[in-house]
Protein: Transcription termination/antitermination protein NusA
Amino acid sequence: MNTIGVSANRLEILQIAKAVAEEKAIDQTIVIEAMQEAIEKAAKAKYGQEHDIRAKIDEQTGEQTLWRIQTVVPDDEFEDESKQLRLSEAKKIDDSLEVGDELKDELPPFDFGRVAAQTAKQVIMQKVRDAERERQYNEYKDRVGEIISGVVKRVEYGHVIVDLGRAEGIIRRNDGIPRENFQTNDRVRAYLYKVSRETKGPQIFLSRSAPDFMVKLFAQEVPEVYEGVIEIKACARDAGSRAKIGVISNDSSIDPVGACVGMRGARVQAVVGELSGEKIDIIPWNYDDATFIVNALQPAEVSKVVLDEEERRVEVVVADDQFPLAIGRRGQNVRLASQLTGWQIDLVTESADSERYQREFQERTDLFMKALDADETLAQLLASEGFETVEEIAYVASEDFITIEGFDEDVAAELQERAREYLDRVAAENDAKRKELGVEDAVMELEGMTPSFAVRLGEEGVQTLDDVAGLVPDDITGWREPGPDGKPVWVEGILKKGEMRKDDAQMFVMKARVAAGWVEPDTVEKMLAEKAEEEVPELTEEERALLALGDLGSNASDEAVDEALEELEFDLEALSAEGGDDEAAPKE
Structure:
């Protein structure tokens, strides 16, 4: 081959590598490495697969070089003459060679046959495809959480394939908005929520039904959201139908709801238009859970809420005529409110709540009549004053009785004496019953154990310390599990719901394990220390203001004290304006 032909061939190799790299948006070095690998594979096919053959293409000149590599080894370790060279023979070739050095033997150029050329092409294309997939993965994995746009390439069985330019994304059927139909070449925007590395290339998953898609759309349409002045704290969607978002402003001069709605609804309508007419309720977010739940159930008006912190369930009482509005069409309003707040919401009408109250009131009245040998009028009076159990009557301070109209010290003392006698009789009956059930005396020595608790343990077959130690907290307090319709249902434990907190049940079981010798005593001490750290209360606005007063010291000036008092008054007024627990949402 003459010099001109060789130069043209070298130049052509570099041009091909550059063109492929630009087309696939990958590094030119990767293409050249693929060519080197293809040449090595073809050379091994010609000279033998057992040889260690390496090729090199100069990235500046395109010059190709081919070597066979042999590694120098001690004479007694020589095994493979195709890849190894004895030290004694190496010294004859070059006296400077030592064990571990490599001897390069340059091979002459050769012509690719048809089969070798086809193999080389496959090697290069595979290497380029792998590099292209890696580039796509690296490019899009860092864009998770963004809204990206593309063109609909095709629709397959409800799945929309989107051309993103240098990659393809997919909007799966359950990630799309129901009843939204796309045609080929339609432009579409979606939320990128996942990029996974697969054998056939990265899978880019897009969604138009994700709550985060709506959040990002508001960030694009509302400058205050983009800048962080307004935060979208929560979002719940029934894609294509209705959605609720909870917003709060970090600037007291900006109304978060008004800013998201925009002038004549321009901002929210832009989001609605992108979501195919999905209705959006913009809810003012509140740090108080009860207030936020009341807001989330808009447009229904709430009469009362009762929170169960441990179960994160809330009972919401609404007027009878507000009940359908609170439920919403097919339960949509309460379902979205539950998703938005993170609380399981149980709706109750005022009439049903009243009936339940009357029933519970009558049950307490009957109990007090029996336990205290009192007439119905006196029992009703005690029930109406808030007494719920005989224990409360027996051990409450006498002063609490005297405040009741018509009660004096003698009446209070007589009622408490009767209550204690009743409790002693019940305890004796329960103690006898637990013995019949086989509950050991050692179980009664556990801290927190009562005769009635022991009876319930015995009824469940728990008789010894080891039996108690083998329990788990859920066995005592109860638990939730999916019901036949998929909704969670409550399963009663040994005790009725609310009689013991789950963390107290855990501590009770742990103490039983210490008594049974299962664990060391210091385990309980560690648990108590951890519990004490978790229960450090957060300071309220009033407490912070009072601490500020305390920081002034005893020698503070009158002006400093007046200023602190004004700040305290302002904090209390602001708290009242936001609505406390008793005003915005009564708790029990």
